[in-house]
Amino acid sequence: MSILDDSLKMNALDTQDMLGIVERSPKFLEWCLQAFELDKKASIEKKIKSFIPKHVTGIFISGMGGSAISGDIIFDWLKDRIKIPIVITREYRLPAFIDKSWLGFFLSYSGNTEETLSTYVDAKQRGIKCIGITSGGLLEEYLGKTGDLCLKVPNGYQPRAAMLYLFTTLAIAVANCNFLEKQALIDDLQESLSVLITLSAKYAKNVPFKDNPAKQHAAAIHGTAIIVYGFDCYQSVARRFKSQFNENGKNPSYFDVFSELCHNESVGWEIDNNIARNFSCIFLRDPAQESEPITVRIEFTKRIVASKAKAILELLPAGKSKLARMLSLMYMADFTSTYLALLNGSDPTPVKFIQGLKDELAKKVNLLTTIAEKIDKLRKK
Question: Whole-angstrom Cα distance, residue 259 to residue 263?
Fold first, then answer.
């Protein structure tokens, strides 16, 4: 594990400074607060209130991968507080029940995600008002052509690394829609910023292995396929762990949630011990959020897994608000997955298989051309 205490070796592998970006990423949250909320000249409050329909019956959030996770966080954070449904869609089309009484949010960091753009066309054909969050690309162009609202964030990052730009902008937009008490949401974001800044110093590259929990966790699960178990508001956190281990860590990973996993996945641990030793398991815990039945389920499952898997980890959140506690664990995923990549001898930034598929789709399907033609027709209407 010596590489995690060797800055030269880490820098040689981490050619695009993913670790540095992760360390600085709390500043992305701060930038959004200042750009969209604190700077009254650029405040989006008036824009949003004058833009959205008077009677919104539901919100849907469209995106993929590192952009879509922001919608999952919003859902888990607000599901006990908001009185209208929130739907996250990762498809080429919207469900049939979504109509023009809904408000659409479209998240694509690059602005060129074909599933998101295809869903945007579907939404406009249904007469739905849409708010896009992007760093540019075709989404920004199409929002301008159809008269929708575009909230633009800085470019230059991998979508997964820009999550706090996308999520915070989405959160501020929702806070300004009059669905919830605005100041309470802004207070949660402010506390989250403080918590993440503290954790950044704790998990940073220059903190030695013996004092760095993120480095220690990466070492514990190194060489295994990683299963992450969450519950309730930590479903989105478990998904984020999984995707960060995949994209940053270049490592197989999967997630599931309590109590559903107790009705199926737990039986899978009956597998032969020699196979089970190829897996490790992360339990996301939070005594403040665990009901008594959930705690019993987690403890029972943990005993089973501990007798089978190579390693198990129990991770606890930091902070007071639900949002701060969710984001604190997600931040652990960012650091741990990046350190895992270095242990795997990989550069954490490139995603060559994803780019390869995009290239093949462009050659064989070229959906973006069809989408552009549909947008032009909508524009003429």
Answer: 7
Tell which residue, 256, 308, 264, 265, has the closest CA to residue 283. 256
**Neighbouring residues of 377: CB distance < 8 A, sequence distance ≥ 6:** none
Task: Check 215, 247, 290, 322 and give the catalytic one.
Answer: 247
Catalytically annotated residue among 40, 263, 352, 363: 263
Catalytic residue (choose from 145, 152, 310, 358): 358
Tell me the backbone φ, ψ of residue 62, rounded to 5 degrees.
-110, 135
Return all residues near 90 (Cβ < 8 A) that are at least 6 apart.
62, 63, 64, 68, 115
Look up the CATH number of domain 2-14+204-343.
Answer: 3.40.50.10490
Active site residue 263: yes
Question: Is position 292 annotated as part of the catalytic site?
Answer: no
What values do phi and psi take at 102, rounded to 5?
Answer: -95, 160
Q: Are 281 and 229 in contact (CB under 8 A)?
A: yes
Answer CATH for 45-175+366-380 from 3.40.50.10490, 1.10.150.20, 3.90.930.12, 3.40.50.150: 3.40.50.10490
CB 171 within 8 A of CB 189: yes
Domain boundaries, the chain: 2-14+204-343, 45-175+366-380
Residue 79 bears catalytic tag = no
Rank 154-163, 173-182, 346-355 by mean pLDDT and report only the highest.
Answer: 154-163
Residues counted in the chain? 381
Contact indicator for 43, 33 with CB cutoff of 8 Å: no
- Which tens digit of pLDDT belongs to each residue from 107-135? 999 999 999 999 999 999 999 999 999 99
Name the token pair of 45. 């409050």
CB 26 within 8 A of CB 196: yes
Q: Is the full-model pTM beyond 0.70?
A: yes
Summarised one tens digit per residue, pLDDT across range 270-284 is: 999 999 999 999 999
DSSP 56: -
Query: Which of 251, 274, 259, 254 lies closest to 337, judged by CA?
Result: 251
- Residue pair 376/120 in contact (Cβ under 8 Å)? The answer is no
Q: Which residues of 332-355 are buried (b: 16+ CB within 10 A; e: fewer)?
A: bbbbbbbbbbbbbebbbbebeeee
Tokens of 164: 């706090």
